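Exercise (ungraded).
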Amino acid sequence: MSRAVEESNRRLLRARDAMDRTYAQPLDLATLARIAYVSEAHFSRTFRATFGETPHRYLQRRRVERALFLLRETDRSVTEICLDVGFTSLGTFSRTFRAVVGEPPTTYRRRATAAAVPNCFAMAWTRPSSFGEARGGADD
Amino acid sequence: MFNTISHHSIFVLDQDQALDFYVGQLGLEVTADVDLGFMRWLTIGVPGEPGRHILLEKPGPPAMDDAAAEQVRALLTKGATGLAFILTTDDCRKTYDELVAKGVEFTQEPIEQSYGIDCALRDPFGNHIRIGQIPSAPQ
């Protein structure tokens, strides 16, 4: 592997970390591409090649993972959680949540149990791995 | 049966750059830096904790072939090598502020967790490190 590829990986990781860190804020491709020091088109293409999914899908899964956490660990309402994790429309949140998790937020909340592990493990291991592909219902 | 964990290893892409980061920025100390001829045995640790060392190892031949080293470097730089280690502190927010001022790249600001307060950062190569203020952490 060339040094250039390693440096590209590292810059893309920096942009992905920014999504993990500021998932609740409005994040657009231009902002993320600037973090990675590349054009928007190049960013989307290389991000997908490096991490196996588009930046948009990564961010949606991060937001849903945080919503799962808040549903498990807090008593906040679904609407509050929707806004907490960066969605601006309850309809989009509900559709995305169901596409990713396979059930509505309230149903998940009823069966969920707390996971007291360091945050990186909760983030990595409770992150929904499917975006509906298994059911043929990808929503991206 | 066992007494302690004395050493564990993480991969770094450049040992001098690793020292700049781990010693110069994080404030750890070198516990061994020995040219063995076939490798540079370079370990760091927390000042005042002499029994635990982290080996900063550079992937490459002859320990692994070029193809394997390439895979390791790819996984490392894309953040796929998992958690490297967790440091503990008495004051997570203060430590965070001090390290931010030194230019350390954090991936998570201090957050109240069910187990304490913690934050997370990356080293220059992609290794993921956490800092925890954990009330029940063994001293």
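Further reading is listed at the end of the chapter. For now, observe: Residues 60 and 70 of chain B are 8 Å apart (CA to CA). Chain B touches chain A through 27 residues (CB under 8 Å).
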